[in-house]
Design goal:
CATH class: Mainly Beta
Largest sheet: 5 strands, antiparallel
Number of strands: 11
Distance between the termini: 14 Å
Oligomer: single chain
Structural class: mainly beta
Number of helices: 2
Length: 162
Amino acid sequence: MSRVEVSSKVRTFTSIAVANTAISYLANYQVGSLLTIPGALRQSNRTGLLISASLVDSTITKNPFSLMLFRAAPTISSTNGTLVNISATEMRSKFCGFFDIGSSDWQQLSACSVASVNNLGVSVDSADAINYSLYALLIAQATFSYSSANALNLSLTIVQDG
């Protein structure tokens, strides 16, 4: 069993803004646009393990979401606030992981709500040999509305292989 070099292989990507707008979302609707996380897998074989994810919601809500992860940017026919539409071909070739952030994962504070999902163990890889990017799409899992835009920020912690 190999040791993980913590200083060089554990990377946390913070404050990834999810560009949602002040609209209503239904279950399975896309929230914001496709997120690009450059350098997420900056090791020789471009693989890693997503170990935790956090979401900060400045509107102080506890909405459930799913996060889909992709090794390459998929062609998405949907847009913010519409039913997610990605072809089966794109999913087969580019999808690499998925997890939920449920209503019970949230802690409501006075200025925001925070959710943290730990011990995920989601294996991820990147097809991007230049920027080592990982791509993500946030999906609503219930009906809710936002009264202000850009209310969400995502953080991911990844152990990079290499």
